[in-house]
Specification:
about 450 residues, alpha+beta, six-stranded antiparallel sheet, globular, single chain, 15 helices
Length: about 450
Amino acid sequence: MTMAEVLPFRAVHYNSNMVCGLNTVVTQPYDKISPEMQARYYDLAPHNLVRIICGRRLPNDGPQENVYLRAARHFRDWMEERILVSESEPGLYPYHQQYRLPGSAEATLERHGFIALLRLEDYSARVVHRHEETLSGPKADRLELLKATRAHFGQIFMLYSDPQGSIEVALEPHRRDPAWQQVEDEYSTLHSVWRVTDPFTIERVTEAMIDRKLVIADGHHRYETALAYRDLCRTESASDERAEYVMVTLVRMESPGLTILPTHRVVHSLPGFDWQQFVAGARELFDWEDVPSPVGDCRRFVEHLARAGLERPALGVYAKPARLALLRLRKNVDLARLLPDLPPSLRSLDVVILHRLVLQGVLGISQQAVLEESNLRYVREPEVATAEVGQSRAQLCFLMNPTPIAAVRENAFAGILMPQKSTDFYPKLLSGLTVYWLDNPAGM
């Protein structure tokens, strides 16, 4: 039986004596960095991690500039200049985040996890489970960066089940010490990391993790990139043991601080789109309720949508001029007949109903177009989604409820994949807090 193998490691990290604050050098995950964010990170500090992890070409790049070789050069130079340094002994790194939900004034939430190495396992081993589809483009990009730098700069976000919280209990005493690293990000989330090198605690945690099944929350593309690089190294060398591991943050599924946000869909560039035709098609499947609330009051509508979703699948739709409606799936709709190829655990999810019955069925957006994002943009903030309608050929948007964590767990363990952007775990894990360098001369 294949088991989850979790290990401590010698983290590479920023040297506090050489940078003007962690908040100037660490970043959000690479796939959340917009061109505007990239420019801002560049302006913050000459050693901001964006120079390594974000492979976009810059306006002043020469025609032959290879962004991956440039990233490797930065990494090598920063190690030599001791901008980045390595720990001398392996450790586990408890990682806690204190945050508020976007747009909310409610009490601060707290999410607990720990950073470690995880032995890579193929999905067929049923140790690591995915819950979303992936695309080839991002994986090719990340593979080139990994090949050039031989380092993992961000953690893959993994979930494990521990109803009693025994692993968190084992790590809790070490939180009483001052944080090893602490930084507040641009979303006012406070990130605190501790370093645990006590052999007894490490053994207790790693032994407790052996029989756990893991679910990828965020980082599917990077996990599959690490698998591809492991396989590449196996063909080139039989002794590259460090390529068999990837850096992860492990968080308990039962944690009260585990938050999934909805991802709203903006539909654009549909040829011949007709609002009345769309309404007629949607009314065959949904009870339609026009909502007079002004579009500027998105948060109130989202609360209305959440209440509606407690009873049955529900979606919000907005189009110009000021057309806002709540769609509830009709009680007599036979999902087993309409979606016979999907298991019950999947066909009843809001995001699946949207993609299969509305985007494909009513609007005629093919699955390939969805995968290529030819007619879709994904947006976290409902105000941004509605504001985009009427701009850049955006014709309407769908406002969503979040996917429940129970659905993520159930489908992942069953090997059932949900559509892309079905989940948005919040907050994100910062890149640059710890780095796993495969060629670290200090050791693994």
